Amino acid sequence: MLCGLAPAAHGANRTGRRFTGDDSGHWLCAALHRAGFANQRTSTGQGDGLELRGAYITAAARCAPPDNAPSPAELSACAPFLARELDLLGRVRVVVALGQIAWNATLRRARDVDPVSVPTPRPKFGHGAETRVRVTADGEPVALLGCYHPSRQNTNTGRLTRTMLDDVLLRARDLAD
Fold first, then answer.
1. Residue 96: DSSP 8-state
2. What is d(CA 39, CA 140) in angstroms, rounded to the nearest whole number?
3. Which of 2, 32, 33, 115 is 20 to 30 Å from the Cα of 98, by its Cα?
4. Using the 8-state DSSP alphabet, how is residue 157 labeled?
5. Hey, what long-range contacts does 17-21 have (CB within 8 A, 24 or more apart)?
6. 137 φ, ψ (degrees, to nearest 5)
7. Is residue 16 predicted with pLDDT exceeding 90?
8. Which candidate, 102, 129, 98, places its Cα nearest to that of 29?
9. Mean pLDDT of 18-29
10. Does residue 24 surpass a pLDDT of 90?
11. What gap in Å lies between CA 84 and CA 5, rounded to an integer?
C-alpha cells in the first residue's frame, strides 16, 4: 500500500484517481511500472487502462488542503478512512509512506491499534526509513517504509531521484514477497 498526503487539486481532484494527471502522478506511475506494480508507465485519468498489481494507493487526507498542509483536525477527521481501508485490504504487508504526513498518519494508526508495536523511540521519517508496526487489530506487523513524496518540489530539486524512488519500491516488493 502506498499512502500519500492528499488528493492533488489539479491531479486526483480533477481525474478522480490518486496520483493521476499531475507531475507527482507521472513520476509515481512510471516508478510503479518499473517495479512491476503497474501495467503501464502513465496514468491520465479513470478509464486509461491502468491496472495496479499487488498495490493500492491511498492518502492520509481526503481533500486537497490549502498549501498542501492539512491541519491536525483534518487529519484526525480523515483517520477513520485510512483505518477502514487498512481493515478492508487485510493482506497489507508493506506501507510506503510518501512523505512525513503519511508516515505520521500510519504511525498514529499503529498506535491506535497496538501501541506496543510502535518502537520506542518513535521512528523518525526519512527517505529509506524502515520499521515494523501493526496497522490492523488481527494482522501481523507490516513494514513501514519512508519515501520522499514525488512532488515537483522534490523531483525538480533532486531531493528525490528516479533511482531513490525505484529503490524504495523495489524494497517494498522484496518485503511483500
1. E
2. 29
3. 115
4. T
5. 17/43, 17/45, 17/46, 17/50, 18/57, 18/58, 18/59, 19/43, 19/57, 19/150, 20/44, 20/45, 20/46, 20/48, 20/50, 21/45
6. -60, -40
7. no
8. 98
9. 76
10. no
11. 17
What fold is seen in the domain 2-176?
Uracil-DNA Glycosylase, subunit E (3.40.470)
Report the alpha-carbon distance of residue 98 to residue 126 in Å, rounded. 10
pLDDT over threshold 70, residue 10: no
Share of the chain above pLDDT 90, in %: 61
Residue 9 is placed in which grid cell?
487539486
End-to-end CA distance of the chain: 13
- Size (the chain), residues: 177
Whole-number Å distance between alpha carbons of 157 and 14: 26
